[in-house]
Amino acid sequence: MADVNQSKRPLSPFMLGQYYRFQLNSVTSILTRITGNALLVTAFLVVWWLIAAATSESAFAVANGFLTSWFGDLVMFLSLWGVWYHTLAGVRHLIWDNAMMLDLKSADMLSWVAVIGSILLTVLTVVIV
After folding, report:
1. pLDDT tens for residues 12-59?
2. For residue 15, is it within any domain?
3. For residues 83 and 128, is the Cβ–Cβ distance under 8 A?
4. What domain range is 94 assigned to?
5. pTM recorded for the entire structure
6. How many domains does the structure of the chain reveal?
7. Burial class, 114, CB count within 10 angstroms (exposed 0-12 / middle 13-18 / buried 19+)
């Protein structure tokens, strides 16, 4: 027999705003995966720049022109933030792997440390270098 109350139940927990609110730990976990994949793209750009430098002056001019353009600078700046964030998130996971700071308050604190710490370390790196 068909369930007559079926239309009153939510279809998915991901109906944002109505039924599900992202938690800080889920957002930082997703962000860790995104930064890890984005850093692969950055690694390919750096390898392209190095291969172009070893190949010819014209190839290097193209690669160097791209990486030193405003878009390339933006990509490298965001990649720098991604390195710091991914590093701090990795340290957070190492702490969790040792069964430490697993309660919600401590886990949230570690998430904020990863987010705010990565921003501060990125700015500090840009200022120093």
Report:
1. 656 555 656 778 888 999 999 999 999 999 999 999 999 999 999 999
2. no
3. no
4. 24-128
5. 0.80
6. 1
7. buried
